[in-house]
Write a structure and sequence with these properties.
Blueprint lengths: L28 E8 L2 H5 L14 E2 L8 E5 L6 E5 L12 E3 L1 H6 L8 E7 L48 E8 L2 H14 L8 E7 L2 E9 L2 H12 L7 E4 L2
Parallel strand pairs: 1-5
Antiparallel strand pairs: 1-6, 2-5, 3-4, 3-6, 7-9, 7-10, 8-9
Length: 245
């Protein structure tokens, strides 16, 4: 998972409307909403390119064309691997652009199309067919625009939710080794991000070596989207989204 370490309390952050190519040594992975392609949004120039809506196709705007990407529905663990067909610009809030046949194959909830995506390196052994399931270690992002942050990057246990719950959505802002660092980040966000509901920001200790900073719950994708954009503008490259914390 990509993250940005900033070693000065005062930092600079710039953004661009151009596509950015990830050149990371680590495998790229993220969890969040899929943008389901439709011709109307293409015609309205919300999406800056076109997919074949009748075929299983995907586009990630920052990974190189031809990159193999595993996409997984975290609710039912259905998974498949597809090539990044082309780099199409879409709203930054979304993690990947997919066609409806992909969503149907994974049995995504079209009203809440949350999925996990993981880059697959070509020099790693795998079997890539139309609908092969890949079981890889899940990674939680570690990133924070704060001073001298010590971040844990340890393996994570899978979260099991057997009971049905009302859909509540959360933003995972960061995963840290230190409770003190997590609290410091929360205070910085409250101070420096205007019009953000501070009551939604929480620090949660997962175990002795891991503490999360999260925002939520949100019952509406639009409410989450507003806060996601505000928090991301604080300096984060990636923010993950999950349901029913």
């Amino acid at each position: 998972m990509r993250f940005r370490l900033i070693f000065l309390i005062f930092f600079t952050f710039s953004c661009s409307t151009d596509l950015i190519t990830y050149n990371q040594k680590e495998i790229y992975s993220a969890k969040g909403f899929a943008y389901i392609f439709n011709d109307q949004d293409f015609n309205n120039k919300i999406i800056k390119g076109k997919l074949n809506k009748d075929m299983m196709q995907i586009s990630h705007q920052n990974l190189k064309t031809g990159t193999l990407i595993q996409i997984t529905n975290p609710r039912n663990k259905e998974s498949m691997v597809l090539k990044n067909l082309k780099r199409i610009k879409y709203p930054d809030f979304y993690k990947v652009l997919i066609t409806k046949p992909v969503a149907e194959k994974l049995d995504l909830n079209l009203d809440l199309p949350i999925l996990e995506i993981t880059e697959i390196k070509k020099n790693k052994s795998f079997v890539a067919k139309k609908a092969k399931i890949f079981q890889e270690e899940k990674k939680i992002p570690s990133k924070a625009p704060v001073a001298s942050v010590q971040i844990s990057n340890i393996s994570k246990n899978k979260i099991k939710n057997n009971k049905k719950k009302t859909n509540q959505i959360y933003i995972l802002i960061g995963s840290f080794y230190s409770m003190q660092t997590a609290k410091f980040l929360k205070e910085r966000i409250i101070k420096d991000v205007p019009n953000l509901d501070s009551d939604k920001l929480k620090v949660k200790k997962i175990n002795d070596k891991e503490t999360h900073v999260i925002s939520g719950p949100y019952s509406s994708v639009n409410l989450l989207k507003n806060d996601y954009i505000k928090i991301k503008s604080f300096g984060f490259e990636e923010l993950d989204i999950f349901t029913n914390e």
